[in-house]
Specification:
By secondary structure, the chain is mainly alpha-helical. The chain is about 75% helix and about 5% strand.
Length: about 300
Amino acid sequence: MRQANFSLPELIRALVVGGIFYILFALANGNRFTLPPIICACAAAILICAAAIRFSGIRVFTMGFAVWTTFALAYLVGRSLNRLVSLVFYGHKTEPVGRLTVIAMAIIVFSSLITVLFWRTFSRRDFTDDAAQGLFMRCFVFISVVMLVFYAGVLIDFMFVRRFMSGDRIRVILPIPFETVINQLFYLDLTPFEIFCQLAGNLFLLTPVGFAVKSCIFAGEDRPPSEEKPARAKDFLIRHRRAAYILLPFALSLFFETVQYIFAVGYSDIDDLLFNVAGYFLGGGFLSLLNLVRKRRTRGLDKNLLRRVK
C-alpha cells in the first residue's frame, strides 16, 4: 500500500531540512579545504543527516534532500548560463564552478547516501513488509541517481571539458606501474593535501560505479534465471553477472585513458587504471560489508539491504 501524500507539517519539516542542507553547503563553500576540514565536514554532515532522519523520518529527510537538490541544480545551471552568456555576448571568460563548491556539494550528497545506508543497516525497524523496504528503496534510489548524475557531470567537466578548454595539450603514455605514485610521494614538490587529492581522486573515481553496479546486478542474486527464455537480456546478465562485474572497471578505466590520449587532455597512466580498478572493487566491497553487518545483526534473517526480508 502506497504512502499518503505529504502533510503540511511534513512539508514544513522538509523545508527546514533543505534549509539546513543549504546552510551546511554555504558554510562548507566558504572555507579553504584541506584534508582535516574535509573529514570534519563529512562527519558533521553525517551527524546532521542522522539527526534529520531520527527526528523527522526518512520520508521527510528525502523531501528535504530533494529541496536542496533543486537549489543545487538551479545554482549550477545559473552559473553555467552566466558563463555561456558572458563568453558569447561579451567575450569574457568567467570562472567555472570552483573546486570548493564541488567539494561542498559532494560532501552533502555523499553524507546523505552513507547515512541512509547506515540507517538501513543498523535500524531496528521491521523490513519484512513492502512499505518499510519500499520507503527505503525510494530514498536510496533517489539519492543514488542524484549522486551518479552529479558524479558524471563532475567527471566530464574536470577530466575533459576544463582540460580541453585550457588549451594545454598533453599526450603521454606512462606504462610503468607505480612510477607516478613514487614520484608524487618522494620526488615531486607536492603538499600532503595535493598528494591526497591525486591518489584519492584516482582511487575513488570508480567507487560509486562499483557500488551502483553491485547494487543493480546482485540485488536479485538469489533469483535463478529463467529456463523458458534463456536468451532474454536480463537473464543473460544474471548468468554472467560476475564476469561483467569483474571486467567492467578495466573497460571503463581503459576507455578514460584512451580518450585522454586521443584528445591530448592528460596523462595515460597505468597507475590511474590500477587505482580506478581498486576503487571500483572498494565500492562493491563496501556494499558487501554492509550486507554482512546487517545479516549478523538480524541473525541471518536480513541478508541483502536492497531486497525485502521474506
